Amino acid sequence: MQTKGHSRNFIYTDWILIETQFDPDQLHSKETVFTIGNGYLGTKGSFEEGYPHALPATFIHGVYDDVPVVYTELANCPDWLPLVVIVNGESPLETLRERFRLDQGKILRYDRQLDLRYGLLSRYLRWRSPSGKTIDINFERFASFADQHVLVQRCHLTPVDFDGVIEVQGSINGYPENQGFNHWEGLDQGKTDQGIWLQRRTRHSRIELGMGATMRISGTEASLQVSTAPGYPTLSMTYLAKSKQTVTVEKIVTVFTSRETETPVSAATEKLAHLPDYATLLKANEQAWDEVWQQSDILIEGDSTAAFAVRYNLFQLLIAGSRHDDKVSIPAKTLSGFGYRGHIFWDTEIFMLPFFLFTQSAIARNLLSYRWHTLPGARRKASHYGYKGAMFAWESADTGDEVTPRWALGNDFYGEDVRIWCRDREIHINADIPYAAWNYWQATGDDEWMQQRGAEIILDAAIFWGSRVEFNSERQQYEIRGVIGVDEYHEFVHNNAFTNRMAQWHLEKAIAVYDWLAQKFPERATELEEKLKLTPQERSHWQDIIAKILFLHEPLTELIEQFEGFFQLEDINLADYQGRDRSMQAILGIEKTNKYQVIKQPDILMLLYLMRESADFPYNEKALQTNWDYYAPRTDITYGSSLGPAVHAILASDLGKSSEAYEVFMQALMVDLEDNRGNTSDGIHGATAGGVWQAVIFGFGGIQLTENGPVANSHLPDGWTRLKFKLHWRGKWHDFDLRKGQVAQDITRQLEYLHLSLSPNPPNFPSEASEHQTSPPASPASPAPSSPSSPHSPIPNP
């Protein structure tokens, strides 16, 4: 049964996003919202015919190029969308030529739809030209999920009240820009029996791109012409149209880069020569999507808006995750916008990766392997700052070197530029990445990946902590000074609790991984010892840090101080600022914000979330309630960071604050569909999309990962009558069908799993991985860790 919901901008069915009016003021945000992709590339939802001041963009994973000031960015690739319709006079001899475009003539009907189920973007129009000719136009496009190098368009044309000549032009625009900067130099272009091709190369990184295009027509006969205007090869078809008769034009594009093949143009033209028609390509695309949704879908009943919007966020993750390339990762704005220049943050490992980990583990593996491939860049950064090991970049691109800009323009045109300190001080990412690597291992039992790649990530990043901590002889404790925590409103603090505890956790796991490696793969352990200069003294140093690192925690009240001196800062009542439409930092200024107890995004609460099932980090109702009561009212949850609302939703659910949980969940859920932060034009909020999945599964679904498999203790929001999803955990799928007022668990599968876990060699796991089968519960953000001393540790106690 189809349900239907609506908001101020859209109508929603179970799977389809519908826009019924075109608003030029929302042009750029809607270009983002209607993004399509296939894990290889993403294309914004710009119009085929163009529009004044539009920002069409196609981004391909890994295609970076140098740019002044901000080091490097994803290059906007040649635009494959141009498909222009020209209505001529009643005969080819007449000179009146009216090009279809929405800023001219009159729109009599407008309906744009994004079908999430198959990644199909459609637009239905009835348009009256300035001279009074009316025509129905139906555009469709998709980036094939069955073949990542194939892009497909179709256009149905039906004159309503005239006979006459219609011309359709299908082009490749070889002059794309990154907001005023063109990364491409022309190499060559030409035509083949099938159509046209274009060859381009990035100016600095020297990545070559080849695109081919062909065009077919049905419903009439038409002459085909080829124009090879420099940088803009075009296929043109002209035919005599009759009123009420529909003609269909298909345009198929292929694209390759030198990252996949030495001869991109040859690859593009060869594939073009052997492609079937639109219907066959569409069917293959639908089959590929069906397989993905079988594993990844979430069914919600009783809330039509949430039912669609959750799927929308998952769709945006699915089209951004690379299925065939382990040298790329997902940028903060996915492949949907120019925001953050296509750079990769901790957003990927902590917020986006858990969705893939439990539904598409091969993509999760690729995302983590990207960090292994970029270890040389992390080592260069550590060396630059005078540290050992690997120091992961706050913003990373193709090499792993730091690409966070040093400066940003201030709000005052005549004022000074603003120094960006994240690159130097926000170092918790060095534990966040190993956290994700460990959790991947716990969830999958992938010993091969851990010994070949994961162990090196975890161990080399741990070496960094050994050189970064400072020993305070008066306190007889280790400190980490001069950092930025998850809360980025305070730019120079000492002993941030999140950073210190995550570093401690990381060192615990590094010792456990080393011991496992030495026992199971001694040759690899010796290899890494030599490569990383990992000595027994270094590992002993880690043990000392674990035992003595400073953590500001009041055992009686369970209140954790966010960083040293936080409680001495001036307090603030955010209720006094009701009605604002900006962040507190924008209101107070950077310097003043540093002096207040105001938080950009959950810091202590984020730590509690990530560690909530860690064996040696108490996560009880008292600790959560105490820290929630203190920190939640001081968090700028609406205007601070888009990363915050989903985390608050999960913890509020744990505390039984159902209405509050749902309220902040909806902030996260609709961040792009309603552009509630005013920056959707920069691209999709990828971390928020990942946070939405976690809020549904671990918050409302109440999933906990036990020794015997996932268990649900649901607390569904008011109105939700059913929540259905599946999780992949240690080689088995677990189906959950949760209903209001019912604690529904995957009992059959859990009993089966329990039986299998007690057998010597459970199916789907090699005997070497059998020690993983009794590892402890995982964190809701991803399967979480036990300490090395946990009785259920998968690695022998050190």
TrEMBL record:
Substrate binds at W346, D347, K600, Q601. Residues 777-798 have a biased composition (Pro residues). The active site is at E488. GO terms for biological process: carbohydrate metabolic process. InterPro entries: 6-hairpin_glycosidase_sf (IPR008928), 6hp_glycosidase-like_sf (IPR012341), Gal_mutarotase_sf_dom (IPR011013), GH65_N (IPR037018), Glyco_hydro_65_M (IPR005195), Glyco_hydro_65_N (IPR005196), Malt_Pase/Glycosyl_Hdrlase (IPR017045). Gene3D superfamilies: 1.50.10.10, Glycoside hydrolase, family 65, N-terminal domain, Maltose phosphorylase, domain 3. GO terms for molecular function: carbohydrate binding; glycosyltransferase activity; hydrolase activity, hydrolyzing O-glycosyl compounds. Residues 758-798 are annotated as: Disordered. It comes from the Bacteria. The keyword Glycosyltransferase applies. The keyword Signal does not apply. Keywords: Glycosyltransferase, Transferase. Residues 311-694 form the Glycoside hydrolase family 65 central catalytic domain. Residues 18-259 form the Glycoside hydrolase family 65 N-terminal domain. Belongs to the glycosyl hydrolase 65 family. This is KojP, kojibiose phosphorylase. It comes from Nostoc flagelliforme CCNUN1.
